[in-house]
Structures are given as C-alpha cells and as structure tokens.
Specification:
heterotetramer, A: alpha+beta, Aldehyde Oxidoreductase, domain 3, 4-stranded antiparallel β-sheet, 8 strands, 35% strand, globular, B: alpha+beta, Ubiquitin-like (UB roll), 5-stranded mixed β-sheet
C-alpha cells in the first residue's frame, strides 16, 4: 500500500496492518526516515512532490520488490509539506516469512525511492533565510544502482 | 496542446507551476523540447542552462532525453529527486 | 538498551525512545520477529532462555554493532515464555544519521542474535502433542558468518 | 564446587535444571567435562551422546570444547541456540 500524505504516520499501526489476523508473517522490517537538524542550523524542510506520479512511481518500485522477494506485505508512506527536525519523513514496511527477504526488500525500496520518487526538499534555516534546495547525492544513485 | 509542469527550482526560475503550449512540429524529442524552451525567455534559460541534469517525465513516467514526445499529454520537468 | 521480558513490546514506543528530543537521527530500522503458525499446525511456541547470559550476550553483540557502525542508538528486546502464532518474539531497533548504517546494524544484530543468544524454542502442536525443540538452522550460522 | 546448568532438551534428558558438582582433578577442559558427565547415568548419556553439537558457556560466556574450565563458577550446557 502506497500513501502520500501531509500527516504523520504510526509505525506500530502500519506493522499491525500487515500482520494482524495472520500466521504466515515471520519477519517485519521497517525503515523510518527523519528530518535532521543539521547541527542546529535547520528550522524546517519543505517537501514538494509531483501528485499522481509520486504514488505511481513508488507503486512501480513496490511491484519490482514484490516480484523480487517473497513478501507477504509491503507499505510505503511519504509525507509532504513542512517537516520539523526530529519529525518523520518516510516509512517503509516490508513483511515476509523470513528475515532476509524483509531486510532486502525494505532496503531496496528505500534506495530506489531516494533516487526515483519525485520529491524535492527545500531547507529553511534557523537564521530566517530560505536555504537551498537539497542537492541529490551521488551516493544515493550508487545505492540504487547496486540492486541492478 | 501539451501541458508542461515544473517542480522545485525549475518552477521557481521559470516562475510558473505549469502551462499549456503548442509545440512546433520539429520538436520531436525531450532534448528538442528542452532546447526550444530555453529560447522562451530568461527564466527558462536560467532553469534549463544545464539540460543534462534536468529530469523529465512524460505522462508521469521517467523518460530519457533521447525519447520521443509524441502522444504526451503531460510533460514534467524537475531537478534530480531528493525524496526519502 | 537490552531487555529480556515476557511482555509484548510496542515498536513505535521503542523508536520514540531513540529519536524523541534529538535532531541527529536521520534513519531508524526496526526488525520484528513473529511466531508463524506453520501452515496452521502450531498452537504455540515456548521460549526458554538463560537469564543473565541472554542479556550479557546480546549486550556483547550490540557493543560490536556500535563499534562497527556510527549509530545514535540501538535497542534489542527478546521475549520468553509462551508465544502464540502472530505474536511478537523479538525486536531490534537501530538508529543512525544515515540509512545504510541503520540497515546493516539491525541486520547484523539479528543474524548474530539468531546463532549466539541463548534462547531455545519448543513447539506445541494444534493436535495437542508437544512437538520438538526447534532445530538450529545451518542458514542462520551462515548468515552470521558473512559479517566476519 | 562447580554449578552446572542445563537448558532445553539437555535439561529434559538429564532431568535436572542444575546441580553442584565436585569435579575430579583430571577434568580440566570442556571436552573432559562432557566425557565425565556421560558416565554419570543414562540421562546424561542420552543428553550428551553427540558431544560435538553441545554448546557450553563458562561464567555466561561461550567457550570452545578445547578450553580449560579452571576458575569456572558456573558452566552451562545447551543445544545450538534458536532465538530471534
């Protein structure tokens, strides 16, 4: 299940959605991405996204993950709008009978999401200035490439 | 008519969220489109001066610059993504 | 923080313990291990542990993880006693500035915990029989060995 | 006196959770201990007939079978672990 939303998410509730009432799930891996304060200089991140394509693109990545690993469930939630340091930005939950599949699928989904999902972050600084748009990192491209 | 949509600093430099354009018949690939847009004014030139780094989606799917734009209803231009 | 307990745990609360009030955490990976019903044949697992050594051994593995990856926090909770299908058995939470460290540390801790932490599982079957003690898997030894 | 502690099916076969023993002076390594215990009765023999798979901890730390047991206050015998 893919959701793009302004509101926060609850990790326990998202795990329960993939596990409650069933006996075939042995392993659940979650990844939460949080806003860092960049050594106290960041006031907030403003996250812009491409509505429609964001859901579609994460959905395409999720389908690849489901084809590649034997998963019993997969959830991705990405927030947009103003996010303060310490707050959640993104959640991935991967469930499977076995731990290796859950770990790899969650890691894959995050690596791909970083370099393929249409989201952009703008920094607002503590000193009141509107900072720069966050630049894409070479290392994120490389992280995605290693799954090919 | 084709709908063009802009995001992040491309949107800021062009000064528009989106616009409808009538593309000339010799604009057939994504590369052609980026080149054509640069001639539309200072903001466009500032946004697209490094065409290599511009990411493009046609009908909400990523495309390479060499790909044709025939049949596109919606073309989005944006910087490299920084989600997650 | 290491805890061995009979009670269930709440993943969101354990994440909050490692993130609330700070701005240096960018990534949190959790692993939850759940009791599977073995295609409807399992009534419950009974988990035995070696009190004292269980905490000490998981602590030793956790120290290795903290030396190997730049973590901002690390939690492990392992339950003992009677566990029903669908219920939680184990939780690992790894927090870091960056996602690669959080993913690897959580995966490492789980792989080591499987083959080094003094816990044993006995199966109780739906048909009323007391099943066997679960046998250690070669694949768990290999999973731990790949981190060496 | 040394405290011996047993877990899982080793505990079930020996029929004891733990016991205090006076070790003979020629029992100096973990291997010696396992061999000596097998002579203490049927239950011990049933529990320890495949000594290779028995895991041992001295004072709550894993040890190899070749290691000495001098100074051990608490020696635990258990099957391969199945936690997690």
């Amino acid at each position: 299940m893919i959701r793009i939303q302004a509101e926060d998410f609850d990790t326990s509730a998202e795990i329960a959605r993939l596990t409650s009432g069933r006996g075939d799930v042995g392993a659940v891996v979650t990844f939460s991405g949080l806003c860092r304060d960049e050594a106290g200089t960041l006031a907030a991140l403003e996250i812009e996204h491409y509505p429609g394509m964001a859901e579609a693109e994460i959905g395409r990545i999720a389908v690849q993950a489901c084809e590649r690993w034997p998963l019993t469930g997969l959830t991705a939630v990405h927030r947009f709008g103003r996010i303060l340091p310490g707050q959640n930005i993104v959640l991935v939950v991967a469930a499977s009978a076995h731990r290796q599949a859950a770990f790899e699928a969650a890691h894959f989904l995050m690596d791909y999401l970083k370099s393929r999902a249409p989201f952009w972050k703008k920094e607002h600084r503590i000193d009141g200035s509107t900072g720069e748009w966050v630049e894409a990192k070479e290392s994120d491209e490389e992280a995605a490439a290693r799954w090919r | 008519m084709t709908r063009l949509i802009y995001f992040a600093w491309i949107r800021e430099r062009i000064g528009k969220l989106e616009e409808e354009v009538e593309l000339p018949s010799d604009v057939t690939t994504v590369s052609d489109l980026l080149q054509w847009l640069r001639g539309r004014g200072e903001g466009y030139e500032a946004a697209l001066q490094q065409p290599k780094i511009i990411r493009v989606a046609i009908n909400q799917e990523h495309v390479e610059h060499r790909e044709p734009i025939a049949g596109a209803r919606e073309i989005a231009l944006f910087p490299p993504m920084t989600g997650g």
